[in-house]
Write a structure and sequence with these properties.
80% of the residues lie in helices and 0% in strands. It has 427 residues and is mainly alpha-helical. Helix 3 crosses helix 9 and helix 4 runs antiparallel to helix 6.
Amino acid sequence: MKTDYPSSVDSSGFFYKNPALKIKEFIAFLSTRFGLIFALNMQSTILYYWVYHITNSKLSLGFVGLAEVIPAIGCSLFAGHFVDQSEKRKMVVKCLSGYLLTAICLFLLALPLTEKSISTSLIVYLIYFFVFIGGILRSFFSPSMFSLFGLIVPREHFANATSWSSMSWQMGAVLGPLVAGIFIAFFGIPSGLVAIIFIIILIYFPIFKIGIKPILKREKEPILFSIKEGLKFVIQTPTLLAAQCLDMFSVLFGGAIALLPVYQKEILHVNEIGFGALRAAPGIGALFTLGLLAFLPLKTNPGNKLFICITGFALSIIVFGISTNFYLSFAMLLLSGMLDAVSVVIRSTILQLVTPDAMRGRVSAVNTMFVSSSNEFGDFESGVMANWLGTVRAVVVGGCLTLGVIAFTFVKVPQLRNFTFDDKKEE
């Protein structure tokens, strides 16, 4: 792929330092990724707020996460098999259409006429159902986008492109909750949900600017054998397996986002705008850090830096858990996002570097299982722990468990702490 720089740009120029941004299809990829993450984070924030305020139940927040994680994990391996044998852009468009239909159904569910016609409990169950559908879509969307990334960006630009890809994700994660908070406070839940519909429609424009890509794995093989090969590769690659396990358990135990409605209402006593700000704080910190990484890329000792950042993440979550001051809580969530951003870039670059092109769908599907386990199942774990132990104890205990996982991984997997970006494959 040609990525030559204009003669007017010298070795200190912007595009010299960010060669991935010279690829037009990569810009379209970033726009698609940003748009959908923005819409889904806006939707997620509204749904968590909506469910908690009509049920007043911490456990109900956990069930929102569980509703997504079950299909995301259950379908991921099969999704990876089909993605490897399908045209990637077409698969992304299909997922986008599914998200659009789901958004329309949620909007109709939130209309005043609907709320008057059916019971509150049925509304909650239908929310869980549509979140469940979203989990199925995610199991196909994530490996499709991961595979598309590898077909658009040359291998030598993976680290730079990963920083920008993560930045687009974080921009969506930051702006989505903030905009959701504004809509909830000033316009209401139905208005926020109809805005999401229009945002998803707009995403069709950039995705069709990406050309049709070749299918690298054309030979047909039994689906169970194909899935086995993907799992086998991850299990036999210690650096990759350890990085994904570290991510899964750190966010599983250290995640506190699902409990933000409780902190907003019962501990910090802030309004809907404050809730949106708290929800967006990790993303704001991550976005700032990713901006720095785009110009000051990680080059040395990424393995050790990964452990340092995840340790700092766990400590910031513990402090957040015991804080009763809004500004301190916001600062800790901000710091957690900054530290997590570094680990995201390192983990994502490891994943891109060690994965063969023909296995990207299946390996990414396994990664989706880890991510879903850590994020959505972490939301369920947070809700259950808060219901049993109380909100503050649940967050603090989770942070302490994360520190234990970090120490165990550091000792048991020297390949990860010694990893460098020059490593192309595991010996």
